[in-house]
Design brief:
This protein is mainly α and 375 residues long. The chain contains 14 helices and 7 strands. The strands form 3 sheets. Strands 4-6-5 form a 3-stranded antiparallel beta sheet. A two-stranded antiparallel sheet has the order 1-7. Strands 2-3 form a two-stranded antiparallel sheet. A hairpin with a 4-residue loop joins strand 2 and strand 3. Helix 9 runs antiparallel to helix 11 and helix 10 packs parallel to helix 11. The longest helix is centred in the first third of the chain and has 26 residues. 32% of the residues are buried.
Length: 375
Amino acid sequence: GLEKNREALQPTVYALTKAEAYSLRAFCYLDLVRCFTPGNLAARPEKLDEPAIPYVTVYDKDIQPRETLGNVLKYIQEDLDVAMELFEAYDPLSRSGERPDDYVDMTDDPFYNLSQRKFRMNIRGALATQMRLNLWEGDYAAAKEDAEELLDGSGLPFLDDMSGEDASLDLTFSYEMLFGVETFERFDNVIERYFSLTEGESLQTNYDALYLPQDRVDEIYEIGSGVGVSDWRYMHLWDKDEVNFVFLKYWEFEDQSITNNMPLIKTPEVYYTLAECLLREGSAQSRNDAITRLNTVRNHRNIPIESNLPYNMTEEEAWNELIKEMKKEYIGEGQMFFYYKRVGETSIPYGPGVTYDDNVYVLPIPQDETDLSGQ
């Protein structure tokens, strides 16, 4: 439909619509890859030749055949290439410095306003998706380039104020979203039911609550050493009773001013990716640069400079600090699971006592898909 009506569309509208569609398809397929296909590809390149999932590029009633994992990853990159070329020319956030003659600044239009771009695919979201793709494939040099490009120039946004009343807090750190979605009606259906220590107005114990014991939360945020006492993620994202903590990242207080946000890619992920790629380089200077990136995120989470990670730590200690920081940041977002799968961890802290391999990490393709595709 987009191509058929191209002549009727203003060129900037056409370009941004097409770029959003291609990059969103790439984003969704990358998540399908992360769920339904093997990880740890850097150590197992032979997995690229195995049948994976279909990659559907046409609207058709017929079930498409499964592609090899290598082909699926190639198609994701091709979609991102199409999107990035258009975004670099037409996205208002592009820093390429080159605009085609038919470019029109659409930021005065509420639909294309910069404050709303994070709720649709955009140049930052597409580049961050490419960063994730390269990291998943084990191409750390390319992932590093993506992260550095995202941080180049004016850098990426960080939330620098978590003061005020509960209802005014940006609990999801949506200000830092490079790409995310709005999720309506989640409070009544999910959050209030599973993330409250008490039941509604009765204030009776909520036996459906999903909670962590206090010692687990204290361990994650390093409360015993004093590091996390002022950490906003510890101070504001947990409702506490005497022994149990429930998660408030997606809570909605009465008259909440910032609500319904679900971040899918945020600023800290770019810093963590760059830190990981630097650590993989193995030099002392790269280790120090990685530590600097970790300290940047920590300071923006209100961990004081006095608690900065020192530059005299070993590479192994720096890796441990990276993993600790990801645990603090990604809780409630699902990204730690994909990290463990991507690097081939055979056990997960506090997980069931099983060996984590493809039997655990790889979700089964629905039987209907297999039957109808004939594969």
